[in-house]
């Protein structure tokens, strides 16, 4: 288990839809462990695989003391809405009101391939929607009204971290035979 660098706004991986997970293997379990460790270290309410540079449909959450993960999620959203503060580990230091569905029912799988159903309201509903958006290449600033989005973009352009190069990932020149990521 290791803490990985979080990709920041501007990194193309954040705008690329993630691929469905097809292998529920040791590599996936390592990814879930790394996502969880990175999320807790940040700290954050959730973290999606693309945020650490992995283009797979997996995310973790930490809401109200509960830590969980979901693989290949599909969501059913309520028509009732909630408005509340939202931020993102890929846009550090910025929070703003964002409208989301008040409740969510998420179907997916755990890291072992077992079916999983998660029902959430309030913060858990917000986190599940936010992280699933990441899996679709959508950032929460895309959901803001025009004025709020302008404020977000102004913050991003002025942020010390904006424009920093994406972390370089070193790949072993040796065949790993599926052992490790």
Automatic annotation (TrEMBL):
* Keyword Cell cycle tagged: no
Q: Give the binding site residues for Fe cation.
A: 88, 130, 134
* Record-level GO BP terms: translation
Q: Any idea of its EC number?
A: 3.5.1.88
Question: Where on the tree of life does the source sit, at the highest rank?
Answer: Bacteria
* Cofactor(s) demanded: Fe(2+)
The enzyme's main class, written as a single word, is hydrolase
User: What InterPro entries does the record tag this protein with?
Assistant: Peptide_deformylase (IPR023635), Peptide_deformylase_sf (IPR036821)
> What's the short name of a Pfam family annotated to this entry?
Pep_deformylase
UniProt remark on cofactor binding: Binds 1 Fe(2+) ion.
> Which positions are catalytic residues?
131
Q: What does this protein do?
A: Removes the formyl group from the N-terminal Met of newly synthesized proteins. Requires at least a dipeptide for an efficient rate of reaction. N-terminal L-methionine is a prerequisite for activity but the enzyme has broad specificity at other positions.
Give the family, as the similarity comment puts it. Answer: Belongs to the polypeptide deformylase family.
Q: Which HAMAP family match?
A: Pep_deformylase
What is the name of this protein? Peptide deformylase
Source organism per entry reads Nocardioides scoriae
């Amino acid at each position: 288990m290791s803490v990985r660098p979080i990709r920041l706004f501007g990194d193309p991986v954040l705008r690329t839809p993630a691929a469905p997970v097809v292998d529920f293997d040791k590599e996936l379990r390592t990814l879930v462990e790394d996502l969880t460790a990175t999320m807790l270290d940040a700290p954050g309410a959730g973290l999606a695989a693309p945020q650490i540079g992995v283009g797979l449909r997996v995310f973790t959450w930490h809401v109200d003391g509960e830590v969980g993960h979901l693989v290949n999620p599909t969501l059913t959203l309520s028509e009732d809405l909630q408005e509340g503060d939202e931020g993102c580990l890929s846009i550090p230091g910025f929070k703003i009101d964002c409208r989301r569905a008040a409740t969510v029912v998420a179907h997916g799988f755990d890291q072992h391939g077992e079916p999983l159903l998660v029902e959430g309201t309030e913060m858990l509903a917000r986190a599940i929607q936010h992280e699933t958006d990441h899996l679709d290449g959508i950032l929460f600033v895309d959901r803001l009204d025009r004025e709020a989005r302008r404020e977000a973009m102004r913050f991003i352009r002025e942020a010390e971290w904006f424009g920093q190069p994406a972390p370089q990932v070193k790949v072993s020149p040796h065949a790993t035979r599926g052992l490790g990521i």
